[in-house]
Design brief:
The chain is α/β, with parallel strands linked by helices and 258 residues long. It has helices spanning 33-39, 65-78, 91-102, 122-138, 140-146, 148-151, 155-166, 170-181, 210-219, 235-238, 240-257; strands at 10-13, 17-22, 43-48, 84-89, 107-113, 197-202, 223-228. It has a domain at 10-117 and 185-253: Alpha/Beta hydrolase fold, catalytic domain (Rossmann fold), CATH 3.40.50. Strands 1-3-2-4-5-6-7 form a seven-stranded mixed β-sheet, with helices on both faces. It starts with 9 loop residues before the first strand and ends with a helix.
């Protein structure tokens, strides 16, 4: 497998157990700021920009979930960390599951936020590839105008997300959409994940039905579900305190597990 990681830009805050907080599509590391401020006394929080997003470089190739996982591994190696707790939101949740499958010995804990183990259905895959084609034709504004209302019901957060998405580059969005469309089914290896894993789901998530999160939590050997009634697809911005509480649980479980 010929995979060349890129050197991810990241921000670091706090001290203690290393925890990576990784953003989803089509965002950047700033979505974690409200959570990081409240967790900085309990963990060493590392917030990278995925390839092509924020300040990170891109190599203009399809963003397969394994490729994103390799980028995260390269960052962990660069920081000389043996094991980390990896928290992935949405697309980064897919990458976190790929990481858990490829490098289980580098994980101390796992957080899966507004994400799923299921691959795209054939219909969803076609829809995603159509979105990629339209994005290539119409540019970043196509995603920035259409996506925030699917991510959250909160108008203020929608405005904030619009600004973040408008900073993206068209080619990066296209490569991410293609990568998500091609991702593998992670269900077969869920039960092999042996570290404490919290699944955080918003009951008002318009993109991923909460039932999928419930099923995923049940299939994980050391998994549990935190369902947030008020949250949609962006619980770290919609209900940051409840996400902080859930990640504190994870830190506690990882501490006992080590």
């Amino acid at each position: 497998m010929n995979i060349k990681p890129v050197e991810l830009e990241y921000e670091e805050i706090g001290q203690g157990m290393p925890m990576l907080l990784v953003h989803g599509f089509p965002l950047d590391r700033t979505i974690w700021n409200p959570v990081a401020q409240d967790l900085k006394d309990e963990a060493r929080l590392i917030m990278p920009d995925l390839r092509g997003y924020g300040a990170s470089p891109d190599a203009n190739e399809i963003h397969s979930m394994r490729l994103l996982a390799e980028d995260l591994l390269a960052l962990i190696d660069r920081l000389k960390l043996e094991k980390v707790t990896l928290v992935g939101h949405s697309m980064a949740g897919y990458a976190a599951l790929a990481f858990a499958h490829a490098y289980p010995n580098r994980l101390a804990g796992l957080g899966l936020v507004a994400t799923q183990a299921d691959p795209d259905t054939p219909e969803r895959r076609q829809a995603r590839l159509l979105t990629a084609r339209e994005t290539k034709r119409r540019g970043v504004k196509y995603i920035a105008d259409g996506m925030p209302s699917k991510l959250t019901h909160d108008p203020e957060i929608q405005k904030q997300l619009h600004e973040v998405i408008m900073k993206c580059r068209t080619a990066v969005l296209v490569n991410s959409l293609k990568g998500m469309a091609e991702r593998s089914d992670a269900n077969p290896w869920l039960e092999m994940i042996s570290v404490p894993t919290v699944v955080i789901a918003g009951a008002r998530d318009q993109l991923i039905p909460v039932e999928r999160s419930q099923t995923m939590a049940q299939m994980l050997s050391k998994g549990w579900l935190v369902e947030i009634p008020e949250a949609g697809h962006m619980p770290m911005l919609e209900t940051p305190q409840l996400v902080v509480d859930a990640l504190r649980q994870l830190i506690c479980h990882v501490g006992k597990h080590i």
